[in-house]
Amino acid sequence: MTDKQIKGAANDQEVKDVAVIGGGIIGICTAYYLHKAGQSVVVIDKDEIGKACSFGNAGYITPSHFIPLAAPGMIQKGLKWMLNPQSPFYVRPSLNVDFLKWLLSFAKKCTPQHTLANQQAILDINLKSLELYQTLHQEPELDFEFHQNGLLMLCNTEQGLNDEATTVLQANKLGLKAKVLSPEALQQLEPNINLDVMGAGFYPEDAHIAPYEFILTMKNYLCSQGVEFREHTEITEFITDSANNKISGATTATDEINAKEFVLANGAWSPKLAKQLRVNLPVQSGKGICVSFDKPPIKEGATLQCRTPFILSEAKVAVSPLDNSIRFGGTMELGVLSSQESSGISHNRIKGLTKSAARYLPDFDTSQVDPKEFWSGFRPCSPDGLPIIGRADKIANLTIATGHAMMGLSLGPITGKLVSEIINQEQTSLDLTPFSPSRFG
User: Fold this and answer.
1) Considering only CA atoms, which of 79, 166, 48, 89 is closest in space to residue 406?
2) Residue 395 · residue 281 · CB < 8 Å
């Protein structure tokens, strides 16, 4: 962080009410609710709007995902999976100090106490976001596909089904209408897909959308309303007013962007900018991959058609039926954002995903899958598995919105609304204590 002279900095620059750094699902939803609240907004992204983590998202809106990533058993599973290059979860060895601190903090949170203390907060924020998606879908200016067909957690082992049955019971205690389905019940629900499973957990409240379509329709609407978008624009430095503990502007390769308020919502890249401001933001990248098919690769004479999205539970692979395609996604590879291999996709990751899919879907033909069609993105993961939403402790006009891990799409609208409420000094829709940036000290 540098401390530059403020005087005259904005003489020939328009001063926006809010600058949102990051144009993914969190940034675009934040811009929407700030605009609706009457704020002038500029959205800044180092790449193309919506082409980072949000682009290949499974599209799930998930009240069912009330258990944080930092959950009991994750350390044991992680150690076991590290020995398998095709496993769904992998930690790339690194001596980076921030990464090692993150791993230690994550390990400390993988307890039953942590899960029980936070599952209600995670459920509540997901349900609020689902309500907002339902409202957005009714807006005449927004045109995007929205399907509330529930979510299936398919299990092909007895242990997996027993674990899922326990989660269903927890969901019922929290008020969700979840239930366990037998293979026969699954066949009735989805008659046009051949499944090799022992059963499934079914969460009827869940929904799904096409992520990039949603971001584009939001962007097009906001552009028509005068919201400014700065694509392929990277923030290089902040202009700060140390006397008032505020940011007055941010420099790019070509100019300055001035605003009264700033929102840090650029996902896995947020810690890099936060560090300039001496703000502790313990977020690490979790690399995921996906592939979309206009026609799924299946054996001759077979079908793979369904209405209900599903997750292959033991394999951690998500399958999303969309209007014009079907998407397969999964894996979590921690510690690769700054590595030389960060832009590539491991063939072991691809092989692991496709082999896993074939175990549950016997008609899925892995020989027809082209590895070159796979896409990868980086999820921003906090060490306790909860998003980070709230005012930064040391910077009076900085609001942080990141760390959503695999729930970024699910929590986009509520996060945007909460940020707008914070900036407008309104009563927030939810208690933000579990998500506060200050919880990390």
Assistant:
1) 89
2) no
Separation CA 46–CA 277 (nearest Å): 19
Tell me how far CA of residue 302 lies from CA of 68, 129, 200, 283, 319, in angstroms: 37, 37, 22, 43, 17
- Give the number of other Cβ atoms within 10 Å of residue 80's Cβ: 11
Query: What residue type is 110 in one-letter code?
Result: C
- Reported as a single tens digit per residue, the pLDDT across 146-166 is 999 999 999 999 999 999 999
* pLDDT tens by residue, 337-381: 654 445 578 888 899 999 999 999 999 999 999 999 999 999 999
Chain-centre distance for alpha carbon 197: 28
138 CB contacts (<8 Å, ≥6 apart)? none
379, amino acid identity: R
Residue in this structure with the two tokens 């509520």, named with its chain if needed:
414
Instruction: Give the separation between CA 248 and CA 200, rounded to whole angstroms.
Output: 52
Domain assignments of the chain as residue spans, ordered by start: 1-63+112-147+207-281+384-441
| 400 C-beta neighbours (distance < 10 Å), count | 27
Q: How far apart are CA 342 and CA 286, in angstroms?
A: 11
pTM assigned to the model: 0.93
Evaluate whether the domain defined by 1-63+112-147+207-281+384-441 bears CATH number 3.40.1440.10: no
